[in-house]
Amino acid sequence: MQDAPQVGELTPPNRTLMGPGPSDVNPRVLRAMSTPLVGHLDPSFIEIMNEVQDLLRYTFRTDNKWTIPVSGTGSAAMEAAIGNVVEPGDTMLVPTNGYFGGRMAEMARRAGGEVVEVDAPWGEPLSPSAVADAFDEHQPDVFGFVHAETSTGVRQPNVSELTGIAHEHDALVVADSVTSIGGVELRVDEWGIDVAYAGPQKCLSCPPGASPLTLNDDAMDKVLSREEPARSWYLDLSLLEGYWGDERAYHHTAPITNVYALREALRLVAEEGIASRWKRHERMAGALKAGVKAMGMEMNAPDEYWLPSLNAVRVPAGVDDGTVISRLLDEYDLEIAGGLGDLSGEIFRIGCMGHSARPKNVTYLVNALGSVLADEGADIDAAAGAEATAEKL
């Protein structure tokens, strides 16, 4: 047998996280993760579970009983949502206007569903007329849309209109709110969303591992009346209901430390106030956007669809996005990301999320980005960008 590996102390770099996630974590959340473990059925943990559920309802703006943190990353919450409400033989309508609509489609197919699409170009939201036409043509059982498309920096407007169209056709609505929860306006009940899933590592500024999910009674009725079980035992909500519902019966060992972290992150949301938090994100991202535009660069999304939590910035002509991203990481310990799919090489994706949405971070980002772009020969005005950002902060 081989000798034990010699591994030193854990010393990751101290980055400033301004990419599409994760975001910087509030020190209070990190402290919560260092508190003692208890059992996943300990009476004290059951009380914590109750608190997390109440805090999630506040943050989702819902009264849904079936509101839980799924044990796993945001993709686990996504698969729990789609894999439970889409049954074999169901048809799911998904969007084509970003990377994560494609992931919805893949999960629906794996759940045994048939996938049909409502088309819109990358960088544009879905139009209600296109959604209505798709419903008339395909009569889907489930409609999925991305409220905040992380790949394009586009926020979907007219949500109530879209959900109204779906409900007129007796379809359930599943909303991807991974990059919107806790950062931009999201009103699950008021907007008629039946199922919403999210990730904790973006605007909630919480390490990944326990991911928000909410279902209304109509959606949960469909889950509980399925003719055959969901294909994933681990993510079967009819079984998880026993643990997160009234019984608190064993299903699996919950990620206790991650639930602690999510509880503290949601406490921070409640202390700030959800509406105030939405406004802070808009103000901080507005300062970032002002700086980018003053430098001479363009946003990918028009102002009416702009997503404050994820700013997609067009890469200046003659500049290699990968070089800029690498230099920011190597020279400034600053993380941003490049484009995905159809926008690969075309945009920078700059997050302004949660604990990262602070004047210090925004100022640092604009100054560092301007300096690197100028050094790479981009036709930009770094000083004007820094000045415009400072004026907005």
Automatic annotation (TrEMBL):
<comment type="similarity">
    <text>Belongs to the class-V pyridoxal-phosphate-dependent aminotransferase family.</text>
</comment>
<dbReference type="InterPro" id="IPR015421">
    <property type="entry name" value="PyrdxlP-dep_Trfase_major"/>
</dbReference>
<dbReference type="InterPro" id="IPR015422">
    <property type="entry name" value="PyrdxlP-dep_Trfase_small"/>
</dbReference>
<dbReference type="Pfam" id="PF00266">
    <property type="entry name" value="Aminotran_5"/>
</dbReference>
<dbReference type="GO" id="GO:0019265">
    <property type="term" value="P:glycine biosynthetic process, by transamination of glyoxylate"/>
</dbReference>
<keyword id="KW-0808">Transferase</keyword>
<dbReference type="InterPro" id="IPR000192">
    <property type="entry name" value="Aminotrans_V_dom"/>
</dbReference>
<dbReference type="GO" id="GO:0004760">
    <property type="term" value="F:L-serine-pyruvate transaminase activity"/>
</dbReference>
<dbReference type="GO" id="GO:0008453">
    <property type="term" value="F:alanine-glyoxylate transaminase activity"/>
</dbReference>
<dbReference type="InterPro" id="IPR015424">
    <property type="entry name" value="PyrdxlP-dep_Trfase"/>
</dbReference>
<keyword id="KW-0663">Pyridoxal phosphate</keyword>
<protein>
    <submittedName>
        <fullName>Alanine-glyoxylate aminotransferase apoenzyme</fullName>
    </submittedName>
</protein>
<feature type="region of interest" description="Disordered">
    <location>
        <begin position="1"/>
        <end position="24"/>
    </location>
</feature>
<feature type="domain" description="Aminotransferase class V">
    <location>
        <begin position="38"/>
        <end position="337"/>
    </location>
</feature>
<dbReference type="InterPro" id="IPR024169">
    <property type="entry name" value="SP_NH2Trfase/AEP_transaminase"/>
</dbReference>
<keyword id="KW-0032">Aminotransferase</keyword>
